Amino acid sequence: MTALPQATEKKLGLVIDLDTCVGCHACVTACKGWNDQGYGAPLSDQNPYGADPSGTFLNRVHSYSVQPEAGPAQTINFPRSCLHCEDAPCVTVCPTGASYKRAEDGIVLVNEDACIGCGLCSWACPYGAREMDQAAGVMKKCTLCVDRIYNETLPEEDREPACVRTCPTGARHFGDFADPDSKVSRLTAERGGYALMPEMGTKPVNRYLPPRKKDAPQEASLLAPLLDIKATGFAGWLDKVLGKIG
Amino acid sequence: MNPAPSVIVFTVLSGMGFGFLAMLGFGLAGGAGGLAFAAWALGYGLAVAGLVASTFHLGNPQRALLAFTQWRTSWLSREAWAAVVTLLLLAPQALSDWLGLGWGRGFGLLGGAMCLVTVGCTAMIYAQIKAVPRWNHWIVPVQFLVAAGAGGLVLAKGGLWGAVASALLAGVLALGWRIGDRRFAQVGARLETATGLGAVGRVSVFELPHTGGNYLMREMIHIVGRRHALRLRQIAFAMVGPVPVLALLALPPLLAVPVAALCHLGGMLAARWLFFAEAEHVVGLYYGQRGAAVAG
What we know:
The complex is a heterodimer. By secondary structure, chain A is an alpha+beta fold. Chain A is 22% helix and 18% strand. The longest helix of chain A has 13 residues, at 233-245. By secondary structure, chain B is mainly alpha-helical. Chain B folds into two domains: 1-128, no CATH class; 159-296, no CATH class. Chain B is globular and about 75 Å long.
């Protein structure tokens, strides 16, 4: 059913910390690795070793240069994936019922057996979160690793999305936004987590944490105490004479 | 957006087809006997050819029947229903006109109205998409309906009616371009809102996530030069408006209708190509491609 649930019991999603992300693309690789062999059609590549490689990914890391009013520009790495919107336009446009949002946890999924590959859902998404797999002809998107997070055959610490589990800097967090005491809710509240493109009216669940304010560069040289030495003795006399001649 | 030939041909042919079928349904043209058969066949042919073309871009067309299931929320599903209901409703009217069965015009009037509903549903597939600001406006359904009506009237009536409708269509297209050129700025999506980094400073693209292309870039980021677009707009405007108007008013009727109809078709293909090629998707912001469509 492509009608959106009125409310979901849980609101599972990610917090992405733009202060901590170093842009290593480990989340991209881990995501591709896990989702290439688990849920649904594999994420195919076209011409991967040729001159014009291309492929399906559920997560992409952009890098932006941000120029503050004062001071040098900053590089900010920006992972972009499905935000599991509460008002997901990709779901309602689907003609076949392949796209749906789960009432129990809010995850937006695609039933690939019902997908005709019309591509309309990818047009409806403002965030470019959906990519059509060119080999299978069906729409692929982030599943929040639905086959990991409830998977009791995995050790407990692995029951989170592959991108979160693999992030070496702890820039990605997974949890329930419906619970105000969850890690993701607290992080969002403490650090001023925000939603992307609110003007699109999609009510994303995922939140991004803004980069922290950078320290001001030190005005004085670190060598300052050493530079203030008064010469004495012969050196002092020479200093005085040279000062007079100069 | 990628101007895929299958979707351009689909919307133009089925638009003109349903427009012409509506005129036949309303009894504005068609005559009787062999002439009626030829007219109805042309209408059905255009509409069905368009619908068939629309399946060419599907990744898994063998499951296309599932597209009838989600009419509660999906305009694409509603369009599928509307098209089938329309073609079924008009069939008895076509038989009656062809064979002189005298079944009145009930099916024709109902089917004619459903033709307009179908074209409206097609337009809403595009107009509903907030992520493409140029499409997300009431002018889009107006353009689709006027284009179908003008195409239908040129084929069905020609003469003064066709001329007036063609002039109206040219005006509506021009208005659409005027409104569309401002839509992206009106909606207010910028790289700063897309990344949320506007509070830190001025944002620009430093590095792309991948060196090759991907589905998003091929499907939703299309670059068309400004001079190129302007020339195409002029051609489209002339071919749907002034040229058919002149042909319909100056040429003898037997020659005027085919000339005007072919011009209309050519002009609408150009206009519909622009409808896709000039439409910018907000995902282009993440790739630093906003404004590319008008930069050339």
